[in-house]
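chain below, 298 aa
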Amino acid sequence: MVSIAGHFTNLVFRLMPHDKEGEVHDYVAERKKNAAVKVPKIPKGVTLKEFDLNGFTADDIRKQGNDKGLIFYIHGGGFTTGSARERRIGTYYLVDHYGYDCISINYSLAPENKWPAHIEDCYKAYENVLKMGYDSKDIVFIGESAGGTLVLSLALLAKRRGLPQPKAVAAFSPCTDQYSDLPSHKENIRTDYMLRDAVAKGLCETLFEGGFDRELLKDPLISPYYGDYDGIAPIHLSASDSETLYDDTVILYEKLKKEGHRVRLDVQHGVCHAYQILPYMPEAKKTLDKVFAYIGSI
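prediction:
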């Protein structure tokens, strides 16, 4: 049964206006609207400092007494919107409840910045965090939606380029396969009030110049499902069974489990895409408790 908060959040997204067929989306206007939303009140005992990291502002969120390590957080937003500031409702909660401090980063957004700008920015940010003196064994990658995709891609890119793996990776509602038409991409359109038909239409269109070769979508840095996970950190995956990206999570979990990779999966029922970053929802709290219990077992 979906919680009252889950029902309410679904209703909010259901009533939100969306682009008409054939209308070109105004990403600049969407970003301005999102940036105008009031940020949540910072919890007592938690501190926030905005600082420069690789040419972009990032949030450094801390709480006295936290001693378990650092969350390296990558926000979602379809690679076109979102920011560290907009994710503070989630990052504040993580720092306040689980003993980890957090660096939440910003990165270049499409369509103004084409692939691989966003993953390269995330890589440089992680590289700089390591240069700040953090031990990779104390770092956990966490991201939601497009950020969930990016934390998986970042672990794969770190392996490719010789940077150390984090302690663990937690991907919330990621897009893992932009090449394939998975059943949930269409079957869950009527229940995913946030993404609706965006996945079925193709998330990749804003990331590339026109006329690109579709085989490029099998690049693991675009579609992490196709990656080689030998030597990659343990992974925790989570999704809602009513979101269009549900199958993306399931197929990657099944692949990793078959390959003997250390992986966990948590599925919540009937809640919105990327529910994990909305801690006023009981389903989000349940998933986050499972994520950090898993991380603590590593």
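The beta strands are 46-53, 56-63, 69-74, 100-105, 139-144, 168-172, 235-240, 263-268. Residues 4-14+26-297 form a domain with the Rossmann fold fold (CATH 3.40.50.1820).
thats it, cya
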